[in-house]
Specification:
There is one protein chain. The radius of gyration is 24 Å and the shape is elongated. The longest helix is centred in the C-terminal third of the chain and has 17 residues, at 269-285. Helix 6 (210-222) links the parallel strand 10 (197-199) and strand 11 (226-228). The chain has helices at residues 24-28, 46-59, 68-82, 122-131, 154-165, 210-222, 233-238, 269-285, and strands spanning 4-7, 10-13, 31-39, 42-43, 87-94, 112-119, 172-174, 180-183, 187-191, 197-199, 226-228, 241-246, 250-254, 256-257, 260-261. A six-stranded antiparallel sheet has the order 2-1-6-5-3-4. The mean pLDDT is 97. It has eight helices and 15 strands. It folds into two domains: 4-120, Aminotransferase class 4, branched-chain amino acid transferase, N-terminal domain (D-amino Acid Aminotransferase, Chain A, domain 1, 2-Layer Sandwich), CATH 3.30.470.10; 125-285, D-amino Acid Aminotransferase, Chain A, domain 2 (Alpha-Beta Barrel), CATH 3.20.10. By secondary structure, the protein is an alpha+beta fold. The structure holds N-(5'-phosphopyridoxyl)-D-alanine. N-(5'-phosphopyridoxyl)-D-alanine is lined by residues 156, 182, 185-187, 207, 209-212, 245-248.
Length: 287
């Protein structure tokens, strides 16, 4: 008999097991997981793994999909159906399926639950243990590669949700030196107190926004003064205007940061002009 997986309430052939394309685990890494070792078909360290699972779910405000007792029954049934004695059980629980967006879905979604079971070759593992392993070292960079447009978007999703809960439209990440890096799904700009357009340089750990790049070209064409230099939230408050850029929002004026007005707290003329210029350029060059 072949392998069996559990997907959202059903046991299915492993090869036929699929999740929805808008599962937030798939699109945003908005999910948690646990792995149990199996000894004689029984879950090892069950309590510790259940406790960590519940904590992980709680930290992300993902509802527990079922009681611990019910989950134990499902996990054991998955093990039984796979006839595995020595192996591993993998459990993934995600926020569920919703139209793509960073913040949590407005409508409550049923958490997604996937379980797979795999066998291990215990004698081979023992032989390996008897020999020991070698290791290498690598710089701690989890996750220091925001320049890559990956779907590892959980921090962005949590930041966007925090903004939403405060009635804001975007969250700006601030680095350890107090400078804004970028938005949860946009690049950040100001027109500073001296009237200079500023956006962070892309040597920093940020996404190289395509909208940002094109707007820089547009600005050069207009002969406007631009500096690729970081700014602090305080500088944004003291700025004449602020705005964000991205494929989703194009050029969008920012009127307040952390509840305090940027400039006079109103949409500024320069940001709106840049929005118009960007849209003109984007329309003219669209293929
Ligand atoms: N996000 N920074 C981050 C973290 C982003 O996710 C995005 C875009 C940008 C702007 O990049 P661009 O100008 O190439 O769209 C900057 C997209 C729109 C999204 O996740 O929906």
């Amino acid at each position: 008999m072949g392998r069996i997986a559990y997907v959202n309430g059903q046991f299915v052939r492993h090869g036929d097991a699929v999740v929805h394309i808008e599962d937030r685990g798939y699109q945003l890494a908005d999910a948690v997981y646990e792995v149990w070792a199996l000894f004689d078909g029984k879950l090892a360290d069950a309590e510790g793994h259940f406790a960590r699972l519940e904590r992980s779910l709680s930290e992300l405000s993902i509802p527990t999909p079922m009681s611990r007792a019910a989950l134990t029954i499902v996990l054991k049934e998955a093990v039984r159906q796979n006839r595995v004695r020595d192996g591993l059980v993998y459990l993934q629980v995600g926020r569920g399926v919703a139209p793509r967006g960073h913040a949590f879905p407005d409508q409550p979604t049923a958490p997604s639950v996937v379980i797979t079971v795999s066998a291990v070759d215990r004698p081979a593992l023992e032989a390996k243990a008897a020999k020991g392993v070698t290791v290498i070292t690598t710089p701690e960079n989890r996750w220091g590669r925001c320049d890559i447009k990956t779907v590892g978007l959980l921090p962005n999703a949590l930041a966007k949700q925090a903004a939403k809960e405060k009635g804001a439209g975007e969250a700006w990440f601030v680095d350890e030196l107090g400078f804004v890096t970028e938005g949860a799904s946009s690049n950040a700009w100001i027109i500073d107190a001296d009237g200079v357009l500023r956006t962070r340089d892309t040597n920093a750990n940020i996404l190289r926004g395509v909208t940002r790049r094109t707007l820089l070209d547009v600005l050069a064409g207009e002969g406007m003064k631009v500096e690729e230099r970081p700014f602090t939230p305080q500088e944004a408050l003291e700025a004449q205007e602020a705005f964000i850029t991205g494929a989703g929002i194009l050029v969008l004026p920012v009127v307040a940061v952390d509840g305090k007005p940027v400039g006079n707290g109103e949409v500024g003329p320069v940001a709106m002009k840049l929005r118009r210029l960007y849209i003109e350029r984007a329309r003219a060059t669209a293929v």
